[in-house]
Amino acid sequence: MLPFLRAGARRSISGLGNHIGHAARRSSVGGQLQFRSGSSEAVASAVPIPEKPQRVTLSDIQERRSRAGRLVAPTAAPSDADMFKGPTAGKPKAKRWDHHLTHESTLRAPCKLKQAARHLKQPGIISLGGGLPCPEYFPISSLSLHVPVPPGFSEPDTLSGGETVAIGKYDASVPRAAGQPPAAEYDLCIALNYGQATGSAQLTRFVTEHVELALGAPPYADWGVCLTPGSTAALEQTLRMLCDGPGRRDTLLTEEFAFSTALETAAPLGVGVAGVPMDEQGLLPGEMDRILAEWRPEERGGGRRPHVLYTVPSGQNPTGATQGARRRREVYEVARKWDVLIVEDEPYYYLQMGPPGERKKEQEGSQGLEGFLDGLLPSYLSMDVDGRVVRMDSFSKVVVPGSRLGWITASAQLIERFVRHAEVANQGPSGFSQVILHKLLDERWGHEGYLRWLMHLSDEYTKRRDVIVAACSEFLPKEVVSWNPPLAGMFHWLKVRHETHPDAASKSILEIEEEIFNRCIAKGVLVARGSWFRAQQDKPPSGLYFRTTFAAATPENMREAIRRLGEAIRESFRL
Amino acid sequence: MLPFLRAGARRSISGLGNHIGHAARRSSVGGQLQFRSGSSEAVASAVPIPEKPQRVTLSDIQERRSRAGRLVAPTAAPSDADMFKGPTAGKPKAKRWDHHLTHESTLRAPCKLKQAARHLKQPGIISLGGGLPCPEYFPISSLSLHVPVPPGFSEPDTLSGGETVAIGKYDASVPRAAGQPPAAEYDLCIALNYGQATGSAQLTRFVTEHVELALGAPPYADWGVCLTPGSTAALEQTLRMLCDGPGRRDTLLTEEFAFSTALETAAPLGVGVAGVPMDEQGLLPGEMDRILAEWRPEERGGGRRPHVLYTVPSGQNPTGATQGARRRREVYEVARKWDVLIVEDEPYYYLQMGPPGERKKEQEGSQGLEGFLDGLLPSYLSMDVDGRVVRMDSFSKVVVPGSRLGWITASAQLIERFVRHAEVANQGPSGFSQVILHKLLDERWGHEGYLRWLMHLSDEYTKRRDVIVAACSEFLPKEVVSWNPPLAGMFHWLKVRHETHPDAASKSILEIEEEIFNRCIAKGVLVARGSWFRAQQDKPPSGLYFRTTFAAATPENMREAIRRLGEAIRESFRL
């Protein structure tokens, strides 16, 4: 059992009852809620949650950069978000999470060789310390990339479109001309050598500023970032940091249907999973509260009450559900009540979209950028007065998956433990990925260009979403298939009324699912079976679902694929 | 306790006694050996170890490729070494290692979404399955790199040197002209999307062939490879696959001085370390045998006898020691005797060099390449009749560290378990790194060019080694400092006779080490303290050492740094 009592609580959790009750009323799943308001073992802390994200502006960032001057960060230079953040005066510090750390994470010591690198700051010192290869032997003297440019971002496959951006080996150390500064702040000499496990200072600056610009800085002072080799790596590291396996037998809270790779990450660690029932807005805070309130270690093989929630708030994988702003606050309050840390996995965050047929007004006209940002649902980070959120961002869905590059944002304590692991787990992301993304996002596009790119992508995926939803209306038998048009992401989730299937009496849900899946394959369409995503494979399935994606196929192929799917379902249901 | 008995053993282990005895006589550390020859619990298997590596030739590879034709491996195409290996008829299969796998590794199930990808082979299928972003939205339409070319490899910083290699987005799918095949086998469209955790087919082919060309295929049939995001990641994954922590309390065998990051990887997993005494050729097989023979779980908190050896055979980090061919066979035999798996970490393998002042004859003249390969010490892979070796290779030291790219070679069983972990730990290396290295190594240089690059690098590091060794002769007080010139790698290890230090009676070895280290910093030279690398920090240090590297500093700076080090030591010793 964890210590839930906190001193200084002034606000009763009972004030939350209505919110959570409201959420529960919308639930398509939950029954009577067991909301334990005012329980003596669980109290919310005193700091109020900000009403809306506190974002900085592009001109704030510009001013900050010009004050700071040229960034000088040579090979393996240590860096952290504090070097690049805006002022944090007046904000509280994050709570300490020692009681949440695993045995493994607690045992991690700093990397001795990386520690020694601090001596390199001494002027004139010659290093015979670290085994860093000589850049003279890097067999690439320059890289260049051809990229699309704002505002149109047309695919520059012809020579007429786009621009070429060059990266030299010594751009950051060789002066442009006598008495001039070097041409760039980052180059191949730095990017292609060993670096810090946090990633480079150059890209750390970019993502730190981006967090403040697009999400709003967290409402506590000591937050930080760490670049990762993608959110797959970040999630495994985070679970190893927070969830103990055999012995303490931790259980992770997730949506009842969850990203299958996340489930496959937890299982071999000996970490159990408790799936929280969902509605069209994703996980239900009342249900989460109920699971936590009703937790009895003795009924769970001695496993302690879950203390970590893994959630995909926007365009959830696989259901496509997006948590509204109020839903997020309610979930956060439940997390505070039960001392739960929130792992917020947001690969699709910027692919938010209005309902079909309704062009998002904020994306039109000259005030587009401001409107785009104002229209984004708040990140858990922006309401995180305690520092209990680990947010995972990734460039995979919005730049390229092959970059294997993302970052986490969390409290300094958790970032430090995460970095200790990264030092031995991967040493940070690829230098090629880092320098290419720096050149594209920071140097060529800048923050504004990148935000416009995200708007552009969100528009493009909105069009794709509209195609698949229209195709479903046209081709799927509505008497047995239903859906909510997704408001973010890449996934469209279809519910099939298995109970009306002609073989419902003799076949299980999984058997019907398999039969339809096989018919789909025979007809030439691959969809994902809903059962692959069930958080608790030991429980009987609650329904029959298929996940489709509107990310990749051409509009014509998407229509054709949905037509085939409709045929497969009709045949199975003998319609 | 593990089952050591194997059926069909015909050869007594006692035939090894002389070898191991010989090794022990050279030991600078060991006392009386307890070599338990003929013990009933430990017998070597029947298959004889090949006398020398069975390498294929460049023309074998050329012929194989032309027979196979153009490699067609689109986005996320599965691949393995079997698609690219030479014939294995007549070779035995690797032994099974189920009893070596950790609980965690045993629990790993295949990734459901990646499994579903097999349906994509069906002609005409439309995928609404995986959430792969549309390459139309990859904001990079081409990349190009300027690279040095064989045979000179002069650094192409001026426009006159080197060549430019271009990578387009659709090079592998768009025909060069009507009726023609596409221009390339790999492109940005494939490399920058999600791929398999094994890495791409294109680079898998290259490393598979490279293993056969340069190391010789292992003498068992079912070996495989898996690309990794560098050997740091590979080691952590391998330890989690083979060494159980709390509960079974495994102990890892290493050299008594070992790569500190490797030690820092093992410690938080709850895996203990047993350091094997070394001589100038690295770990002593007789000592390894003694540790295993004398192992008493009841004296080790219940921990079972070590069943995994982690070793850096060439240019060991930190000691610079290189195991000779005979030493490697002896270590392998001890590993067979006690059913120990060998994790062979070989980042410096191709940086082998002759003794100072003796130009390696094989690198001169027209027969250079053949001679270079013949001169390489055998990899444990090449003698691995059981399939008990996991070899880790890396492009970090021989191309660029920032690629975060390497590969492991091991038995199919171990590769399969490793891949299951990679699917949730990182999803394989960066696509930028993969496509850039493919273009450079495979397309532009080809295998021959890459081997010539390795020869070139080995020559360059030999010159650097000669500089540091000469500087040590010139500037270090020989009455208290001694060394063996390294025969591979990047490190030069200095032994200091602490017992002659004027404060030896009142100060510990660690105190003297610290005092000299601090004097070095004050004089402007950073070296690595030997104690950072002690495998067993709980044991008293056996001597006073410093690790220096000849990898990075200019020759002038190296001389100056060694001069400062000499001054620091003289002052400390009041010489």
UniProtKB/TrEMBL annotation, chains A, B:
Q: What protein name applies here?
A: Aminotransferase class I/classII large domain-containing protein
**What does this protein need as cofactor?**
pyridoxal 5'-phosphate
Q: Does the keyword Transferase apply?
A: yes
Q: Does the keyword Ribonucleoprotein apply?
A: no
Family statement drawn from the similarity comment of this UniProt entry: Belongs to the class-I pyridoxal-phosphate-dependent aminotransferase family.
Quote the SUPFAM superfamilies the UniProt record gives: PLP-dependent transferases
What the entry lists under CDD domains is as follows: AAT_like (cd00609)
Originating species: Remersonia thermophila
